[in-house]
Design a protein that fits this description.
The chain has about 475 residues and is of the alpha/beta class. The protein has helices at about 20-35, 45-50, 55-60, 85-110, 125-135, 145-155, 185-190, 195-200, 225-230, 245, 265-275, 295-305, 325-330, 345-350, 360-370, 385-395, 410-425, 425-445, 450-465, and strands spanning about 10-15, 40-45, 65-70, 115-120, 140-145, 170, 180, 210-215, 235, 280-285, 310-315, 335-340, 355-360, 375, 400. It has a seven-stranded parallel β-sheet. The longest helix has 25 residues, at about 85-110. The structure holds uridine-5'-diphosphate-xylopyranose. It comes from Arachis duranensis.
Length: about 475
């Protein structure tokens, strides 16, 4: 008689429908598959429909056999863009999502593919009600933002940090002393973004139900705050969730970069970078959500032109109208290339790139860390403000632009930062620090590193609980 076949734990990985949320969860999924787990990645119908055709092809043809499924946000044709407001979108999604998640888990069970554990984005905390209360299976929350920022938001959720802010400085456990202006912007402008603020604050309301809390960061980067949070959460740091073959600068599979919401202009960007001197190009990008004002776009255009550096500038389609006419008319594509979207991982690993002028979104920050790219921090909102503080003052791997009293970052400040990184003695120190963090990031995901060990422990415990 043959041995009874061993049960392979099946995790359903549920991502909030945004590129910066789903990509780290896909990368984490790949690491779980490598350790023998079965994974189904789930996001909304509308999200899968709006990604590039390459995305779905790359997932379905991925050598690690990533299964893809959908739930509904109530807006299968168009998602958030089809809703009247984020508040209405959220209300609908929070009603329809749990029901369709429950249907999906039932469908998978009846197809002989039962789910053992739901790993849900913290934003979609209600997935743990479905997993734990309805199906009695395991549940984990996955936080795509840094532990420093999660801890601040958790303090707000617990009302340990009272709003509106009344102090000029805050001492939060595990964090450096933060001026009020260094806290995530939602803590002082939450009235302008009630929907986002609500999603962010409520990420913690099911944390008591979580069997694990997984965070896309690594221990060495945030050790103090991780130590503090581990006292109160079943926390495991499992990042940086950046495709690991990029850490070795080896492109193993052309379909390995995850999801892209726009076409990436791969050939034009890389061809343009290929003949630029080593470390000479300023790569400029503000991520997938926030945009600059028209005035700020013009100031940035002046800053880049006047600094006379090579630059690769991502201006999304929706923001192209803000590029000043004079800039387009004098466009010198040898000196600067403007694209609507680029293959950021390939760009950051390119030898020609000397620094990254970034909004400090958490994925961009981790990507800069992973590839040892010195950073010019130009945060716009939310966690970016606190990430910028860490980049400059804690990790010392970048500089930060100054804004004037109206909030505008002037061309002089942009030019000075570029010079400081590319040409000054301090720039060399910053580059060395960036390389130090790159090595620590790589060590953490290499065999036996802190994140690698945490993933191994997670998988072992899961196997034990599911056997
Ligand atoms: C949002 C919030 O703005 C940010 O504050 C939060 O930390 C995460 O969610 P987003 O604006 O998308 O994120 O920025 P970021 O987290 O940096 O993610 C952007 C992703 O898009 C990165 O993975 C980056 O590699 C990718 N990207 C960006 C491209 O692939 N091409 C581009 O041209 C620009």
């Amino acid at each position: 008689m043959g041995e009874e076949s061993k049960h392979v734990a099946h995790c359903l990985v549920l991502a909030y429908p945004a590129q910066g949320h789903i990509n780290p969860m896909i990368e984490f999924s790949k690491r779980l598959i490598q350790r023998g787990l079965k994974i189904t990645v789930v996001s909304t119908v509308s999200f899968w429909n709006t990604t590039t055709p390459h995305t779905l092809k790359s997932l379905s043809s991925h050598p690690q056999n990533i299964q893809v499924e959908s739930i509904s946000d109530g807006y299968d044709n168009g998602g958030l863009a089809a809703a009247e407001s984020l508040e209405i979108y959220k209300e609908t999604f929070w009603k329809v999502g749990p029901r369709t998640l429950s249907n999906l888990i039932q469908k998978l069970a009846s197809n002989n593919n039962p789910v053992d554990c739901v790993i849900s984005d913290g934003f979609l905390y209600w997935a743990l009600d479905v997993a734990k209360d309805e199906f009695g299976i395991l549940g984990a929350l996955f936080f795509t933002q840094p532990c420093a920022v999660n801890n601040i938001y958790f303090h707000v959720y617990k009302k340990w940090l009272e709003l509106p802010l009344s102090e000029s400085e805050y001492l939060i456990p595990g964090l450096p002393k933060l001026a009020a202006s260094e806290l995530p912007s939602f803590l002082y402008d939450y009235g302008s973004y009630p929907g986002y603020f609500d999603i962010i604050r409520n990420q913690f309301c099911n944390i008591h139900k979580a069997d694990w809390v997984l965070a896309n960061t690594f221990y060495e980067l945030e050790s103090q705050v991780v130590n503090w949070l581990k006292e109160i959460w079943p926390l495991k740091t499992i990042g940086p969730c950046v495709p690991s073959m990029y850490l070795d600068k080896r492109l193993l599979h052309d379909n390995d970069y995850g999801v892209s919401i726009y076409d990436q202009n791969i050939d034009s960007c890389i061809k343009w970078l290929n003949d630029k001197p080593k470390g000479s190009v300023v790569y400029v990008s503000f991520g997938s959500m926030a945009g600059l004002t028209e005035k700020q776009t013009e100031e940035l255009a002046f800053g880049l032109k006047e600094s006379d550096c090579y630059f690769l500038w991502v201006v999304r389609d929706c923001d192209q109208v803000k590029i000043p006419k004079w800039f387009l008319e004098t466009d010198d594509s040898e000196k600067g290339l403007v694209v609507t979207w680029c293959p950021q991982l390939l760009v950051l690993t390119h030898d020609a790139v000397g620094c990254f002028l970034t909004h400090c979104g958490w994925n961009s920050t981790l990507e800069a860390i992973c590839f040892g790219v010195p950073t010019i921090a130009m945060p716009l909102w939310t966690d970016q403000i606190t990430n910028a503080k860490h980049i400059k003052d804690v990790w010392k791997m970048g500089v930060r632009v100054d804004a004037d009293e109206t909030g505008l970052v002037r061309r002089e400040s942009i030019g000075n930062c570029i010079k400081e990184i590319l040409e000054s003695e301090k720039g060399n120190e910053i580059k060395n620090n960036a390389l130090k963090w790159r090595n620590l990031a790589k060590d953490s995901v290499d065999e036996g590193g802190s994140s690698d060990q945490n993933i191994t422990e997670f998988v072992a415990k899961l196997a034990q609980l599911c056997s």
